[in-house]
Amino acid sequence: MGVIIIKKGYYFIIVILAAMLLISQTHLKESFGDQIFEGIGISPWSKSNQNGMHLPVILALFLLCIGVAGAQRTLRDRHPRITRSILIGCIAFFVVFPWATEGYMFVVKYNASDIASTEVSNGKCNFVSNENNVNADCSFKIYNYGKADEVVIRPILPTNWNRNVDIVFEANTLSLDQHSKQNITMRFNGIQNNGSGFNGWGQDIDLEVISTNKR
Fold it and tell me: Can you say how many angstroms the Cα of residue 147 is from the centroid of all Cα atoms in its chain?
């Protein structure tokens, strides 16, 4: 009977790991839980435009409560420091997971040379305008997992960031080192289509990869 209880306790550890996956971030600082939900065709948010309840986090907290309580109940006799071990394990998981996702992408896409070869983190941009001409100085990180030599890229303001601003930016071409990650600061020129005089600073600005080339 004791062996059965211990085996059941390890199932609760699996439940805790599932909760960790739902609230972890990849090397691009993207929610892995969001990717899981979107992969099975479910919106991670209860309302559109990333509004409402964040379903992966709610599910993760539910699983975490079940997992921790169950592990303590079934494993504390065999492992008196189970709570401490779980805490240390969760911290280690959050530290290692982004590194693991980065390494996985470099392995899987090692020979890629098209758009699949690159990914870009969301940028931080400073916007300065002269009438309806807008300059955006953006800092971001770009990953070239494969063999692309250059990428054509441009910033896009998120729809939920400032709905009153419509700016179309020109694309820039950026040379890349193969199998690399690079921190980039680049200026983009754009046109403000409604009004003028847009200035300010923003983060989580999407950088769209339009195309890549392999020489």
Answer: 22
**Amino acid at site 194:** N
Q: Determine how many CB atoms are found less than 10 A away from the CB of residue 97.
A: 17
Per-residue pLDDT of 20-52, as tens digits, reads 999 999 998 889 999 999 999 999 988 876 778
Which pTM does this prediction carry?
Answer: 0.79
Q: How far apart are CA 134 and CA 127, in angstroms?
A: 7
Which contiguous run of DSSP H or E holds residue 200?
strand 200-213
Q: Are 55 and 46 in contact (CB under 8 A)?
A: yes
Cβ neighbours of 180 (radius 10 Å):
11
Q: State how far the alpha carbon of 109 is from the alpha carbons of 82, 174, 204, 215, in Å.
A: 39, 20, 25, 17
Per-residue buried b or exposed e for 128-140, using 16+ beta carbons within 10 Å of the residue's own CB: ebeeeebbbebeb
Distance CA 96, CA 4 (A): 31
With residue 9 as reference, give the H or E element that holds it: helix 2-23
Q: Which 8-state DSSP code applies to residue 34? A: H
CA nearest to 45, candidates 60, 61, 56: 56
